[in-house]
Amino acid sequence: KVLQSGVAVAAIPPVAPKRRQSPTGQKAAAATLAAAEPLPAGRVMPVAFRGGAVGAATLRRVLCYGDSLTVGFCANGQVYEPYGRMLAKDLAASATGVECEVLVSGHSGLTAAEMVAYMDNKKVQDVASRHGKGLRRILREESKPELALIMAGTNDLGKGRQPAEIFKDICRLHAECHALGVRTVVLSPPAAPFAKSSSSWDVSRRRLKELLTSWAQSTPFVAALVDPSELVPPAAAGAWDPDRLHFSPAGSKLLGRRLAPLVLPLLFAKPAPAGAASEEIRVAKVIHPAGSQDRPAAGLNLVALP
């Protein structure tokens, strides 16, 4: 496994209350609204984006699962620009001519712990009043993907959870995919403009990334670990929402575009060794047993793996 240098991404707190905007802020908000295509409203996620020639010899499916960074929340919830939309376009535009379907499901404001608790739910409502299926239900009811990209943990960091606790829940999410033979890509919580590198939030974020990196290198069904803030740096002009937490539409598109060449070869990789997933599930359940107190009540670093 090859580890390339990189940084990490942040967790997404709940929707911020609306505030008066200066003329400059109003202009920026208008530009944000104009830059994004509408995301179908009223539909239970996942939402599918398709690219490439229909009927092509090869169809590859990708699941993008996570929080508001995945669904592309910005402009205080007035706009959604999921990175999966651009990922589908760029995968389809590749020289391979692959036909692809990218499913997107992002629960704004939810922690990784809540995603674990709601894995079987038919309809999970997030803080922005959008609805989506739980991860296990998606995997069992939708067409099986070749690859799942999971970005979670930002909201856990925002709520002060310890990196080791967050890590256990993220492992559980990946393990559910691996149990069905679906390889995964870890998108670690990215660094965000609002948090200085010396802040306790970013210190915890970096520690979480270390834990995820070590685990990814030793887990057969993890295809790669990517630090989104290497692809969309906190200082990138126009790439972040005015709240300095979420990507702007341009930032989400940039993430999708830069992920495409990393994801493409993984879609054609050989499956992981038989038996590897069951051992990982056993370890994951020991790490985070049912009924753990960490779980709520019901209701780029690129690590390239062979």
Automatic annotation (TrEMBL):
SUPFAM superfamilies membership: SGNH hydrolase
Any one Pfam family match given in the protein's UniProt record, by short name: Lipase_GDSL_2
Gene3D superfamilies: SGNH hydrolase
Domain SGNH hydrolase-type esterase: 64-253
GO molecular function: phosphatidylcholine lysophospholipase activity
Domain of life: Eukaryota
Protein name: SGNH hydrolase-type esterase domain-containing protein
Organism the protein comes from: Alexandrium monilatum
